[in-house]
Task: inverse folding
C-alpha cells in the first residue's frame, strides 16, 4: 500500500510552526509531490510536548496511519518513535532523534524517556525508517543519535555541519520523500 500523506511533527517550543525552521518550506514542497497530502499543524502543549497529549493528537487530529509518513524533528522524532511502538505507519523520518531526557527537566516531563525504547516493535510497525543526524548538533550527543540508528537499523544520513537541523530549507528531506513515493 503506497503512502498518501506526510505529517510533520515539530520539535517542542516551535511556536507557529508554519514559520519555524524548515517546516513550512517542507510542507509546500511535499504538497507538490503528486498524490501526497502534507499536514502541518501547531501542536497542543508545544513547550513540554507531553507524550500523553501529542500521541493522541497524532492519532485523532493528524490521522497518522499505515498510509502516513511521519516526519519528526527533535521532540517530534521522540513522539514519532513512541507512536510507532503501538501504531502501524508507512514510514518514519527522524530528524535530530535522541534516546534520553539529556538531564533536562522539561524533557523528563514530556514522558518519552520514562521507559526503555521498544526498537523491535517500532521496526515491526513501520515499513521504512530513515534518520537525519549531525555530529555537530549543539543539543544532542552523537552517541544518542547513533543509538537510535543502531536500535532501529535506520537508513542514516549522517552530516557534520547541520547542527540541529534548524535551517529554513531541507532539500535532502524532499529527496527521500520523493524516493519513498517512487518506490511505494
Result:
Amino acid at each position: 500500500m503506497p503512502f498518501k500523506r506526510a505529517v510533520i511533527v515539530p520539535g517542542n517550543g516551535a511556536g507557529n510552526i508554519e514559520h519555524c525552521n524548515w517546516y513550512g518550506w517542507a510542507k509546500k514542497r511535499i504538497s507538490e509531490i503528486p498524490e501526497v497530502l502534507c499536514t502541518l499543524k501547531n501542536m497542543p502543549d508545544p513547550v513540554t510536548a507531553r507524550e500523553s497529549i501529542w500521541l493522541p493528537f497524532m492519532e485523532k487530529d493528524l490521522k497518522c496511519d499505515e498510509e502516513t509518513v511521519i516526519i519528526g524533528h527533535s521532540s517530534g522524532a521522540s513522539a514519532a518513535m513512541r507512536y510507532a511502538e503501538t501504531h502501524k505507519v508507512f514510514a518514519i523520518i527522524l530528524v535530530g532523534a535522541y534516546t534520553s531526557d539529556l538531564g533536562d527537566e522539561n524533557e523528563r516531563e514530556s514522558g518519552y524517556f520514562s521507559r526503555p525504547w521498544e526498537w523491535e516493535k517500532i521496526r515491526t510497525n513501520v515499513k521504512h525508517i530513515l534518520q537525519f543526524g549531525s555530529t555537530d548538533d549543539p543539543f544532542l550527543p552523537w552517541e544518542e543519535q547513533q543509538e537510535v540508528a543502531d536500535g532501529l537499523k535506520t537508513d542514516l544520513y549522517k552530516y557534520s555541519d547541520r547542527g540541529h537541523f534548524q535551517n529554513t530549507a531541507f532539500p535532502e528531506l524532499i529527496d527521500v520523500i520523493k524516493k519513498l513515493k517512487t518506490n511505494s
